[in-house]
Amino acid sequence: MRIAKLIEEYIADQGWDNDTVNRDEEEGTSQLKTTMSINNQNFRLYIEGDEKRELLSLYLYAPFSVIEGKSVDACLLFNYLNDRFTYRGRITVQDDGDIRYVEIIDVENIEPPIAMIDNMLNSGIGMFRSNIESIAAVALTQKTYEAIRADYDKKDAARELHNQKEEENASTESEE
Asked: Domain-by-domain residue ranges, the chain?
């Protein structure tokens, strides 16, 4: 089971001595299930291999779930994050309210390096670090998607104004 072996090599590389890969030889699947701290919160991490379909999957679950009545706002925000920003995976909300980052890679006809898993994980960590406040607000409070989206739009406008001023300063300096 080459994907299981890859996951085991990753565990060894990270020094996660207490973690093991659960293998199901008959089904051709393997799974690492562990927790990790991001911004002082415990996230659930699953790295899975499917030998038959030749897929390597990473799931990173937020430490909180979407409260009742907020699923639509969460879906709208997550759709915005998936569309607006460049992450290798995507953020989703499950029917039970669980929030997860998921990335699935087809490893057919390739020998992926363990760095591939690190890249997958770092993308998920980066997504949560950059957006955790907005994700928590939409999931746990009465703040609406529209209000959160307005916050992102304000940040974009401020960034654009800053960039315009820098361009103006640069062109003024080059004229002198």
From this structure: 2-143, 146-176
What gap in Å lies between CA 171 and CA 142, rounded to an integer?
A: 46
**H helix or E strand, kind and range, residue 110:** none
Between vectors from CA 168 to CA 166 and to CA 174, what angle results, nearest 5°?
100
| Class for the domain spanning 2-143 | alpha beta
Determine which helix (DSSP H) or strand (DSSP E) holds 68, and give its type and residue range. none
Closest listed residue to residue 46, CA positions, set 31, 65, 36: 31
**In the structure, what pLDDT confidence band is assigned to residue 86 with cuts at 50, 70 and 90?**
confident
What span, in angstroms and rounded, lies between the C-alpha atoms of 103 and 90?
7
pTM of the entire structure?
Answer: 0.87
